[in-house]
């Protein structure tokens, strides 16, 4: 069988269904677990619940609904989130406290619990480990996503895999993104949490589609331990690779996007500086609009970098543009070298990369995003209708 993601992990079963805008996915896998969550002050009910439950460091299942965010819903919303864990627990024969819960969709609306209960009763008997199962789960959690998002990283003695959803309201830290990651590596809850936090910082936290930060961001990672113990460094690298793949897929599928945009910042004094600059540039509406119009207005990149709050010598920087195949120099050590015709050609494909060297040190960071198109306004101008 040819797996794309989570069902490649021994011990994982999944399924999902979608009815119009409303979907439900179940994933069953017992093991140590860790999570990272939105930094928005307004946190959805399932986030508030999961911040408490994940402290136990164990999960046996996850239930996810799409179409309703269960955010800004007060005490009823929290009660409903608890009810979702109970519904899944009853269906799967596990304790509600060992069930992860996540929601995505419209904010300020209450869950339709009868619908969730019915969908759960239909999905639970179909849980299986198969390529079709991971596809069904990935489809069920989509909202404005145009494509499913899968990642699978294989090592000699273990695998790390994940599914995610995310298309709009994407901005560091994290974005409206739900990520469910699984591994057969045996790893304790604390080192798993540390690895997930670092991987998230270098992946999901560097994705920007529109500058808005969601109320519902969550990334959960469960380790079944079926493959036995592995080196922490090897696991961390594989987890980061998996998260980075998922993050790039989110950026490429940004609402209305026609191009994947990457900002690579090199030559910083420290990684935090490189990250600040990369994130500032990737957030710039002027940069994103220029990429959409295939306008080689590279000065917008330099200007955005200059307002990131990081000190560097503007007369020492270098800037290149690439389509992932060929690189063109725009600025070298502060001297303009731009061939605008060549730069425009580099912007004609589905991937545009700016490489900015600050000439201050050896640290680097990459951020991912997309262009800004009329389609984004069309999608979000009619989101609830």
In short:
With 385 residues, the protein is an alpha+beta fold.
- The chain-level mean pLDDT equals 93
Report the top-level CATH class of the largest domain: Alpha Beta
Sheet/helix structural class? alpha+beta
Query: Which homologous superfamily in CATH is the superfamily of the largest domain?
Result: L-amino peptidase D-ALA esterase/amidase
| Main pleated sheet | 8 strands, mixed
Count of the separate structural domains: 2
Radius of gyration: 21 Å
CATH fold-level topology of the largest domain: L-amino peptidase D-ALA esterase/amidase
Extract low-pLDDT stretches. Answer: 169-175
CATH architectural name of the largest domain: 4-Layer Sandwich
Individual helix count: 11
Strand content: 25-35%
Order of helical and strand elements? EEHEHEHHEEEHEEHEHHHEEEHEEH
Query: What general form does the structure show?
Result: globular
What is the total tally of β strands?
15
List the keywords.
alpha+beta, globular, 8-stranded mixed beta sheet, 7-stranded mixed beta sheet, 30% strand, single chain
Describe the structure.
This protein has 385 residues and is of the alpha+beta class. The chain folds into two domains: 6-252, 4-Layer Sandwich (L-amino peptidase D-ALA esterase/amidase); 260-381, Roll (Ubiquitin-like (UB roll)), CATH 3.10.20.340. It has helices at residues 45-53, 74-92, 113-123, 131-140, 189-201, 232-252, 271-283, 285-292, 299-306, 340-346, 374-381, and strands at 13-19, 22-37, 58-68, 99-106, 149-154, 159-165, 178-186, 207-208, 218-229, 260-268, 318-322, 327-332, 335-336, 351-357, 363-370. The strands form two sheets. Strands 1, 2, 3, 4, 5, 6, 7 and 9 form an eight-stranded mixed beta sheet that branches. It has a seven-stranded mixed beta sheet with strand order 8-15-10-14-11-12-13. It is globular and about 65 Å long.
